[in-house]
Amino acid sequence: MANLIDLKGISPKISKSAWVADNATISGDVSVGEGSSIWFQVVIRGDVNTIKIGNNTNIQDHSMVHGSTGGIDTIIGDGVTVGHKAILHGCTIHDDVLIGMGAIVLDEAIVESNVIVAAGAVV
């Protein structure tokens, strides 16, 4: 079973139709939508602000999703693919986006719908 951790009295909310790998870690104020998948060794830390992951989105192996101080939530839309070892930090990713392997999307960045962020890119 995945490592789901309550923080500050807030538990992650995972849709019943979502799949989470046994060794993924999800903590705090996180919601994962219907049909989404969280793969092996992913860390999603909702310890600072809210993290919302939409429907039919997949976060691939070794990726990190984290909020940022100063009230910056991390929002990931529907139909998003986050490639292996990507880092999403305090950003907004709209629907139907591909975040390439090893890409880094930083605080306050907004990636519009139907965009591809190249592998290894920094936004």
Question: Which features characterize this protein?
Answer:
41% strand, 123 residues, mainly beta, ten-stranded parallel β-sheet, 16 strands, UDP N-Acetylglucosamine Acyltransferase, domain 1, single chain, six-stranded parallel β-sheet
CATH class: Mainly Beta
Radius of gyration: 13 Å
Q: Which residues sit in consecutive blocks of at least 5 with pLDDT less than 50?
A: none
Number of helices: 0
Order of helices and strands: EEEEEEEEEEEEEEEE
Number of E-state strands: 16
CATH fourth-tier homologous superfamily: Hexapeptide repeat proteins
Q: How far is the first residue's CA from the last residue's CA?
A: 33 Å
Average pLDDT, rounded to a whole number, is: 97
Q: So, CATH architecture? A: 3 Solenoid
Number of domains in the coordinates? 1
Using the alpha-carbon principal axes, give the shape.
globular
Broad structural category: mainly beta
Biggest sheet architecture: 10 strands, parallel
**How large is the share of residues in beta strands?**
35-45%
The helix content, as a percent range, equals under 10%
CATH structural fold name = UDP N-Acetylglucosamine Acyltransferase, domain 1
